[in-house]
Amino acid sequence: MGTDEFIKEFKGAKISRVACLGAGPVGTCTMATMASRMPDVQFTVFDDNTNVVCGCQSGPLPFFEPGLEELLDKVRGKNLSFTSSLDQAVANSQVIFVSINTPLKTTGTGKGKAPDLSGWENMARRVSKASNGAHKILVECSPLPISTGETMRKVLAACGHPGTFEVLCLPSFHRGGNAVEDLSNAETKMLLGSQDTPAGQVARDTITGLLGPWISGDRIVHSNVWSAEISKLAQNAFIAQRISSVNAVSMLCEKTGADLEEVMRVIGTDSRLGP
């Protein structure tokens, strides 16, 4: 089973079974939103932490996101479920979203600074084993460092299992504490990164079709996986720079008697900087 079989299986396919690995705020909010828009698709969310699974399945939630509890009430027991069995989640899915944490290294080179990708590597091994040779599309959807997709592809290839995988990147741009509203916004745009290969293009088209009831195709920006990963980090950096600049201007206004709102309004009239 290889690339040709992957293309044959997914080209024009209608996805009906989706899994998400990681029941944190990003994974749970994203899957709950998708489940509410796609009643004909069965969503299964996996987490190793049984307390998290129980909280998401029957409450209370292990984290707070405004509107999430109400959204879950509409889809739990219908087309959204939670499980602590990775084998079950992977075996019963065609598409797998991966939403796990990426802590900093605690030992070795880059300790306290560099991201620790061992969790992603281990998850790739577990997915490869649980897939038992079946073709799967994996979609990174949590905040992640550059090269995560490449790392997962290498691990999947090194595992030697006969299943063929395509790894895509769908970075999360919603705001913490405002995730449900952001994801439910009709103006929401998405960035989908994929490989520029025949199998990668089929996987891209498959995920674009899956997202259709939620995000129309014209609101999805396509790029390669590296660009998608860098775009998320670059946006975070630009936002941080903008906040830092506003804080600096605010301090200057306080010392001179200038009105910060007036200054920012003037700056906002420049198309290179505003609104």
From TrEMBL:
EC numbers, comma separated? 1.1.1.22
- What PANTHER family does the record point to? UDP-GLUCOSE 6-DEHYDROGENASE (PTHR11374:SF3), UDP-GLUCOSE DEHYDROGENASE/UDP-MANNAC DEHYDROGENASE (PTHR11374)
Pathway participation = Nucleotide-sugar biosynthesis; UDP-alpha-D-glucuronate biosynthesis; UDP-alpha-D-glucuronate from UDP-alpha-D-glucose: step 1/1
**Family membership:** Belongs to the UDP-glucose/GDP-mannose dehydrogenase family.
Which Pfam families does the protein's record reference?
Answer: UDPG_MGDP_dh (PF00984), UDPG_MGDP_dh_N (PF03721)
Q: Which GO terms describe its cellular component?
A: nucleus
Name the UniProt record assigns to this protein = UDP-glucose 6-dehydrogenase
Please list the residue ranges annotated as the UDP-glucose/GDP-mannose dehydrogenase N-terminal domain. 17-203
Q: Where is the UDP-glucose/GDP-mannose dehydrogenase dimerisation domain?
A: 226-274
Q: Name one GO molecular function term.
A: UDP-glucose 6-dehydrogenase activity
Q: Which GO terms describe its biological process?
A: glycosaminoglycan biosynthetic process
- What SUPFAM superfamilies does UniProt report for this protein, alphabetically? 6-phosphogluconate dehydrogenase C-terminal domain-like, NAD(P)-binding Rossmann-fold domains
Species of origin? Hemiselmis tepida
According to UniProt, the reaction catalysed is: UDP-alpha-D-glucose + 2 NAD(+) + H2O = UDP-alpha-D-glucuronate + 2 NADH + 3 H(+)
Alphabetic keyword roster: NAD, Oxidoreductase
